Amino acid sequence: MEIRCLGEFSFVIDGRPVRTWRAGKARSLFQYLLVNRDRFASGNRLCEVLWPGRAVSPRSSSLKVAMHAVRKILAAHQGFTIEHENGHYRLTARDVVIDFEQLARYANTGQHQRVAELYTGDFLPGDHADWVVEHREWCKTLVLHSLRQISTEALRDNDYSRVIEASKRMVEIDPCAEGAYQTLMIMHARLGHLGRVHGWYRLCARRLRTELDVQPTRLTRRILAGAMRGDLRAAAA
Fold first, then answer.
1. What architecture is domain 2-95?
2. Where is the Bacterial transcriptional activator domain (predicted)?
3. What is the β-pairing status of strands 10-13 and 16-17?
4. What is the mean pLDDT of residues 201-214?
5. Engineering a disulfide at 132: which of 66, 127, 141, 143 sits with its beta carbon 3.0 to 4.6 angstroms away?
6. Distance between CA atoms of 182 and 167, rounded to whole angstroms?
């Protein structure tokens, strides 16, 4: 069994996707239990997650209906169990591959290239629930760290194309990662691509202004000025 939450949500068993999710809260409930698997979550917490800002009691039919739908879907697939104890619920799973858990394992063991390859997009894109955003940012932190490590190692090897590739992915994931723009500007300056240096600077300035209402730092401006003078290419010669 394989569950993917990065880039899109999919639940695959023996090569076949599970498509029996019905309208309602069943899929969101399963996703929350999955992220918190092997840990108990109170009925109150589940209601807060599924119906934020609404006074929904865990004793109401709403949670029971959603939980019943999840249990019904999982009943056909060995390896999943939902335990209920004193108003708390816990999902346990065995023989299942979950992409965001793999991401964490690879990151924790320094397998940075695998992290970069596994990260195919945001965690549960399009879902803006608080708990989803928190987990999404955590996944981004892992992949951005790995990409920085890849970039650093490539720079030691004077592999400019790999540095550029890693830095471009960083700004795709985090459009306000000013350090990645700085690296891109320096690499293109060393290669004599002054148009690209200026292009990356303009993109950086626009995104920082739009997203954060700030200007590029003094260091970024100094890199641009040095590149335009030819200082950076001369230093690399």
1. Orthogonal Bundle (1.10)
2. 98-228
3. antiparallel
4. 98
5. 127
6. 9
